[in-house]
Amino acid sequence: MVDLTERQKKILSLVVREYVETAQPVGSETLVRKGGLRVSSATIRNELATLEELGYLTHPHTSAGRMPTEKGYRYFVETLMEEFELPPVEQRMIRHQFHQVTLDVDQWMRLAAAVLARAARNTALVTAPTATACRLKHLQLVAISDQVALLVMVLQDGTVKQQMLALAQPMAQEELTRISNRLNAHLAGLNLEQMRALTVSFSGFENDVLRVVMNIMQQIDRRSAHDIYRDGIMDILRQPEFAAIERMQALLEMLEQRTLLEELLSEFAPEQGVQVVIGAESQRDEMSEYSMVLSRYGVPGEARGIVGVLGPVRMQYARTIGVVRYVSGLLNDLMLRMYGR
Fold first, then answer.
1. Number of C-beta neighbours around residue 273 at 10 A
2. Letter string b/e over residues 230-259, b meaning 16 or more CB atoms within 10 A of that residue's CB
3. In contact, 88 and 94? CB cutoff 8 Å
4. How much is the pTM?
5. Which value, in Å, is the radius of gyration of the alpha carbons in the chain?
6. Which CATH number fits domain 136-221: 1.20.1250.20, 1.20.1640.10, 3.40.30.10, 3.30.390.60?
7. Best CA proximity match to 19, nearest among 61, 54, 69
8. pLDDT tens for residues 5-46?
9. Residue 281: DSSP 8-state
């Protein structure tokens, strides 16, 4: 990017902010009136023309004002944008909402998507935390009848699995509880490979339970796709970019392409911090008119997920980045609590 003069930077920043606010091309008179620039309209028009030649601005037709290009938005995000922090009252409200929900990952994801969508006024995308290799937290055997027991498995990420087990001979609940306690003493906190490496001797039925546990964990480890929790579709549809029915349909169709969304989230979510992807930077035709703000959350080496916001290229980047960063931080804290750290 070409290094701009201080006046050019101020003008570009004003154009971006005004266009994001109004969705209307910005003219020199508006910049003089709102920008506090102590120069003539002619000087501003010359600077606008220069910024357009450099690729930071464009205009829909000759007599119209200017609006930012993707290059202009990128310069604004990287150089001109001031860091935004959610007001304390919003932070308290969001924290209160999370503190009200139980230690249930599904509830966390739904709430995170709702909070992001409402705060960023665009569509929120949240993936559940994916374990590098799932770990058993606790199991319990519950007597259903004389010859049937229910195996309840709780994994470290909060996932709960249940399976009926046929008993070769009747067992009382006291015996099932004793077996549960012994298995927990050896299996709690282990992943599949660690269970396979155990040298402990188990009874016949204990081995049967262990095989079921390992089979379930193997199936979970093989999962390649996770649900993407979405919220705020109506928020993004209220943006003027989607007033035309064709644009609205294209957006809804794109949001239904689960494989595309999974690929975008996994490809562009950064290992640390927040990543902004503007328009064609995604190199996907379907995404050329949208931007994403993404962040990862979770416990490295254990389980991690992605939170993000998708909206039109004309996005309130500072606020969106601040919201994504804040919600990602809250989910980090919740995941650390879940993993006892």
1. 11
2. bbbeebbeebebbeeeebeeebeebbeeee
3. no
4. 0.75
5. 27
6. 3.30.390.60
7. 69
8. 999 999 999 999 999 999 999 999 889 888 878 888 899 999
9. G
